[in-house]
Amino acid sequence: MDNSRVLLFAALAFVLLLLWQSWMDQYMPVENNVEQKPAMELSVEERAQAKSIQRQNNPVAQEGLPDVAASSEGPALENISTDLNAQQSKERIVVKTDALYVEIDRLGGDIRIVDLPNYPVSKTEPDIPVRLLTDNAEDLFISQTGFLASNGGAPNHLSEWSSSKLEYTLSAGEQSLEVPLIWTNSEGIRVTKVYLFTRGSHRVEQKMEVVNGSSSAWKGRQYQQLQRRKSDDKNKPSFVYTYLGGVIYSLEDGYEKIDFGDMEDENLSRDRPAGWSAMIQHYFLAAWVPPAEETNHFYTKTLSDARYVIGSYSQSYELAPGDSKVFKANFVVGPKLQHELEEIAPGLDLTVDYGKLTFLAKPVFWLLEKYYSLFGNWGWAIIFVTLSIKLIFFKLSEASYKSMAKMRVIQPRLKVLKERYADDKQRLNQEMMEMYKKEKINPLGGCFPILIQIPVFISLYWVLVESVEMRQAPFMLWINDLSAADPYYILPVLMGITMLIQQRLNPSPLDPIQQKMMMALPVVFAVFFAFFPAGLVLYWVFNNSLSIAQQWVITRRIEAASK
To answer: Of 7, 88, 438, 495, whose CB has the highest number of CB atoms within 10 Å?
Structure first.
């Protein structure tokens, strides 16, 4: 091989091509132009006025978004009217904690809006939080819970609940906050739904106590589901592909992506113990985690207007007159913080989607965190992780650079052979192999060490792309957001320069076409990386710089020894 680095550049170009194609399959993110105050800063009267204006301007949001949750027995939600005009939003219950701003609709008793006050939309809009859940028709993403009752009646996500208060705030010094809602019917069935919020947590515990005050047995099951419209992820950076869709997990089947296309093709229907269901996007998720000791039925449904449902319902329970039962589930809504997710449920941390190389990416992220704890800066953490990986593969890289240096030494002799046997390709190959044998050079010696390192570098790429810790993290000087593109394109230009220097240290390809391709690569990569997050480009610049230093030293030694 005339240039063993060609393989590395070709592999990286292929990865970039896949990323480009994946991005092209997505719609260009639409800017979230918000001019009004964040909802959490509005008074109750201002919120009511805003809701009134929204309903007037958005008939779909006014009409509501119904769904029919699946059930294997008895009259479930199929008997509920699907008249959109009968599902207008009622009063909202506002909940404020240090980690969440939540709006609960009394119609359904469901969580309809979730803002994340600690995660601004952008660095330029620090007072506007990310709105993860919304019942806005265009970007619909809501949670729905209720019961499927075959005897005695029970509330579902279309029932009206009552509440003694319309605003709850987690005060200083308080560690938790309970928000109760009540539903009753004429038959004597009483259901109390309680949302329990905890300081510093993005987990909301839900308890629904059913009290059978009727004269006959009550039979039903709890369900919880997420409904989402197939729309753009506004929090995702351009030119970076990340997964948007449904996910389920069970100890039996492990982690499975159920994207919107899968939901359109077939409704999921599966009974599993100790599982959960979620809708995930770049950096954030919403998930329902039913009790691990129960066997639940997991399902998906496709609705009109590009809306999709994923959820689960419990086994059926029967309550005799006078009996009661508390149904529990955990709702997780917020950033994909691995340590927090690990404590909530098995496999929930896998929503930080590192893909097939998770087994490599996890140790890389662990190392990244360790360096962050030392320096308090994710940019320096990236640099020292890059240095650590370089040291781990030092010997492999050394073997690769030695092979390339030897190829560089014999390059003039190879050119002579090519000119001499230009019309006899077979003889040329024989003479070249004889020269390699005589000089003890393996033409593929520079390729195999690089091939071994590629999975590690790709896993680091996904760690930098997927980890919410990188979001809006500052580095130094002009880089104030490692998850956004370099505003002045300095890092991409530096990366192109480092690639050009590496080419000068490598043996030039004998083929003129390959020479032109190699000359174009630094420019192509610099243009590509101009749109990539600065953290990724920082990694490549520093990695290339270390490679140049190591390669230059080895090349000088080999050339000096050959004289």
So the answer is: 495
